[in-house]
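To illustrate the input format used throughout this study, we show a single complete record. The first block contains the structure-token representation of the backbone; no residue identities are included at this stage. The design step must infer an amino acid for every position from geometry alone.
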């Protein structure tokens, strides 16, 4: 975040602190991995990022380091195959942990490199009802039910507003509704039913 806002001195402090923590606590290898990840991001150090991508114990952490490594590699056209490979590793990791927003961001990065991934499964689904919705349609429904516009939902999901509009039409058709108000009501009812079930 410090780098994204142009505050490199603060980013350097963060990396220094992470390195100190790792050095002072060798019994906690996770700190060394976090320090390597931070150093890799600050210095665009592919070796440090590769180390973090393989050594993070947390699946989301491995995916994050793999994404950062892929981003650094995209700066060199000769490294495009490696960049794609690490971004795909990140995508699969994010999807496996349910990090849909992170997965959507990586899909967008891959699209910029000319690689397209379907973000739904071909599993058999019923023709209508909640179970008929894809993961992406569920995500769109949840955001729209919160009152977001198509454009706002698109920004959160790293999709185009047109794509969100298409998914929303599919949601309406599958749920047999015709308005955002009806969608919000159905989502609220479903959440209430889920909460009641958890308390039973």
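Output of the design step:
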């Amino acid at each position: 975040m410090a780098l994204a806002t142009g505050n490199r001195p603060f980013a350097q402090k963060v990396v220094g602190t992470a390195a100190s923590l790792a050095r002072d606590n060798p019994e906690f290898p996770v700190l060394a991995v976090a320090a390597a990840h931070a150093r890799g991001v600050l210095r665009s150090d592919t070796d440090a990022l590769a180390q973090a991508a393989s050594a993070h114990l947390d699946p989301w952490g491995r995916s994050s380091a793999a994404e950062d490594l892929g981003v650094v590699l995209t700066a060199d056209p000769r490294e495009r195959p490696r960049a794609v490979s690490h971004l795909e590793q990140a995508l699969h990791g994010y999807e496996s942990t349910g990090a849909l927003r992170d997965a959507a961001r990586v899909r967008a990065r891959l699209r910029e490199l000319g690689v397209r991934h379907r973000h739904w499964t071909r599993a058999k689904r019923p023709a209508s009802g909640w179970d008929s919705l894809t993961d992406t349609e569920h995500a769109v429904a949840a955001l729209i039910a919160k009152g977001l516009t198509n454009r706002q939902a698109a920004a959160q999901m790293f999709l185009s507003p047109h794509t969100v509009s298409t998914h929303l039409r599919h949601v309406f058709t599958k749920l047999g509704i015709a308005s955002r108000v009806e969608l919000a009501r159905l989502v609220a009812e479903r959440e209430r039913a889920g909460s009641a079930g958890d308390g039973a």
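Structural context for interpreting the output: The CA atoms of residues 145 and 180 lie 7 Å apart. Residues 180-199 form the longest helix (20 residues).
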